[in-house]
Design goal:
It is found in: Mitochondrion inner membrane. This protein is an all-alpha fold and 302 residues long. It has helices at residues 5-39, 47-58, 67-96, 106-135, 137-142, 153-164, 173-199, 209-240, 249-260, 269-301.
Length: 302
């Protein structure tokens, strides 16, 4: 039975939303520590120091600062990402001269994921901007860069609109695109290669939850190892632009390397690596199983 393209897009969008939700719920504390260490590396000696200081300063809730925009960001990003992933797979099939129902290679799937991420970046940038600012609110207030009244999602949104207008939500868009497009090539490439390894001759659709989660974790680690310095610059741009005019990607990159050294671009890498397996494993597990369930329901409806 040939699937209706509109129904297939709706299934991919819904499954992507389920995956994004699972990703945030499992990985938010590590994401918070990552952003804090990226933007204020001199305040923290390492992951344990950042964790202990965050707890002593703000309490347990400090690890979940920015969860609301993070949920919105990940649901929006992964909904668009996986919906566009299906369309981009068809574009890749056409480009390489394959039939519409032909199986793509792992390399072709990686290319489709890379193309799809460009569309996802457009919905991700505004919500991730708010998330990053909320996550580093304590540090910005203690350094005197902003007033102590900005501590809710709505206050951050109002501040951006008042200062920069609607386009202010797209601070860091170029660095988001620079991260997403190559990063998701490695993300989907690592995921599909891992699934092929675990399948070992069987259909990848028959894999159980553990291989799926491990494959998702490998995909996440491939993404962060490939583009982590770009993500660090993006966080700097999005957070520090709160306190005044912030240089663009190249200017921020040169300033960080000149003043802090090349290793500053890898501040917060450890929590990202720890987060990669549970968060991305949960993402792909939720995506694949919810997608499979909806596909079966659609088939039974016919």
């Amino acid at each position: 039975m040939k699937s209706n393209p509109a129904i297939q897009a709706a299934i991919d969008l819904t499954a992507g939303a389920a995956g994004g939700t699972a990703c945030v719920l499992t990985g938010q504390p590590f994401d918070t520590l990552k952003v804090k260490m990226q933007t204020f590396p001199k305040l923290y000696r390492g992951l344990t120091d950042c964790c202990l200081k965050t707890y002593s300063q703000v309490g347990f809730r400090g690890f979940y600062r920015g969860t609301s925009p993070a949920l919105i960001a990940n649901i929006a990003e992964n909904s668009v990402l996986f919906m566009c992933y299906g369309f981009c797979q068809q574009v890749v099939r056409k480009a390489v001269g394959l039939d519409k129902q032909a199986k793509l290679s792992d390399l072709h799937n990686a290319a489709a994921g890379s193309f799809a991420s460009a569309f996802a970046a457009l919905v991700l940038c505004p919500t991730e901007l708010v998330k990053c600012r909320l996550q580093t609110m304590y540090e910005m207030q203690m350094s005197g860069k902003i007033a102590k009244s900005q501590n809710t999602v709505w206050s951050v949104v109002k501040s951006i609109l008042r200062k920069d207008g609607p386009l202010g939500f797209y601070h860091g868009l170029s660095s988001t695109l620079l991260r997403e497009v190559p990063g998701y090539f490695f993300f989907f490439g690592g995921y599909e290669l891992s699934r092929s390894f675990f399948a070992s001759g069987r259909s990848k659709d028959e894999l159980g939850p553990v291989p799926l989660m491990l494959s998702g974790g490998v995909g996440g680690i491939c993404l962060w190892l490939a583009v982590y310095p770009v993500d660090c610059i993006k966080s700097r741009i999005q957070v520090l632009s709160m306190s005044g005019k912030q240089a663009g990607f190249l200017g921020t990159f040169i300033t960080v390397v000149r003043n802090e050294g090349i290793m500053a671009l890898y501040s917060g890498l450890k929590p990202s690596m720890i987060r990669a397996f549970p968060a991305n494993g949960a993402l792909f597990l939720a995506y694949e199983y919810s997608r499979k369930l909806m596909m079966m329901s659609q088939f039974e409806a016919y």
